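For reproducibility, we list the full input for the glycinamide ribonucleotide complex.
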Amino acid sequence: MTRFGVLVSGGGTNLQAILDAHSDGRLQAEIAVVISNRKKAQALERARAAGVPAKVITHHSFPDRQEFEQALIERLAEHQVDWVVLAGFMRVLTPLFLSAFPQRVVNIHPALLPAFPGLDGQGQAFAHGVKVAGCTVHLVDEGTDTGPILAQEAVTVRDDDDLESLKARILEVEHRIFTETLQKIASSELVLEGRRARFVGTR
Ligand code: GAR
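The corresponding predicted structure, in tokenized form, follows.
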């Protein structure tokens, strides 16, 4: 069974969606470990409540990014992780980390990439005045939110939306497309042709 390691930094509603999908059988995979770079992340409580090992590796405890990433790699390896899931993980990962999990790091981003990469995708889109917002699940490469796209879904912006109402509707869609994509990763083969990604067959 595919073993996912989940990296988090904050509230962890995407992690919760993953844990819920796992517990009710929509996600047939192991959630091997959850690692937060912030001690106070609510995501840690969510992991513990679900009986998943929850660890803290703070980037402040290391002299540089490389040593921080090396510590992440070691902890993920201890838990025999096959795929790394970034669920609201707010640190950029370097080639050192990515080479330990080649084409096996997946991220959720709260905008329709390639528009509005980086921090606060929803806020950037809202401020731009888009009529269609959304979210993207993608493989992580060395750029910022530039890797091959695995899934996307649009969310219509309403005239009476404020940023909070729009964020809330995007988040609901995030939870669904992220868990569905993780199930595809766990149950089929990911084929990459250049930037184009598709899932084939079932295991
Ligand atoms: C989510 O909206 C996710 O898309 C975003 O952070 C939020 C985490 O929420 N991620 C990024 O912006 C990554 N650059 P959560 O902790 O409740 O899952």
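The CA atoms of residues 191 and 197 lie 6 Å apart. Residues 108-203 form a domain with the Rossmann fold fold (CATH 3.40.50.170). Both points were considered when choosing residues for closer inspection.
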